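Technical note accompanying the year-one report. For the benefit of new consortium partners, we illustrate the data format agreed upon in the data management plan: each record pairs a sequence with a structure-token string. No post-processing was applied to the example shown here.
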Amino acid sequence: MHRLSPVWSLTIHQLQQQVDQLQGRLDQTSSTSSKPPSSDSPFKPRKPRHSSGQRGGKKGHRGPGPKLLEPTDVQVVLPPSCSCGHSVVSAPIPYRTHQVLELPPIQIDVTHFILHQSTCLGCGQTLSAEVPPAHASGYGLRLSALIAEMAGIQGTSRRLIQDFCHSKPRWATSTKRRSTAKTP
């Protein structure tokens, strides 16, 4: 058997350590190091996570359930008559509360700004009142906020917003900027 010289043996040992170190780097993932998940290879399948137990609450624990809100109206619903024909039943006791949420009807507050004109008796110039700047758009703060929510955050189209505004309360809207209307 051929024996390697100490220089070659040391070189091979150093190269083997370097290979082991590089192999260790390849085996690192975001779950075994401080590397971010984006540095993981997209070609290696991820290992499924094993849960430490059953999901959800423990047996026998009912949980909090939905919270009941303060009612604006209460309707008592009694059970129907028994199908056997007896009309005498025990005093009914409540066993469940079914909560129904409903939005109140939208009522539009309409304010008319009646603008006046007058003529200066000294020079004859016509003086016209102007709409207060806070109301120049023709829409109040809450309606403007609703339309901004629909258009900006919800991404609703201008046409759908117009359809919404025209649906029940008959709001006058336009895709173009409106000029100020004259009073009769």
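Partners are asked to follow this layout when depositing records. Strands lie at 117-119, 126-128.
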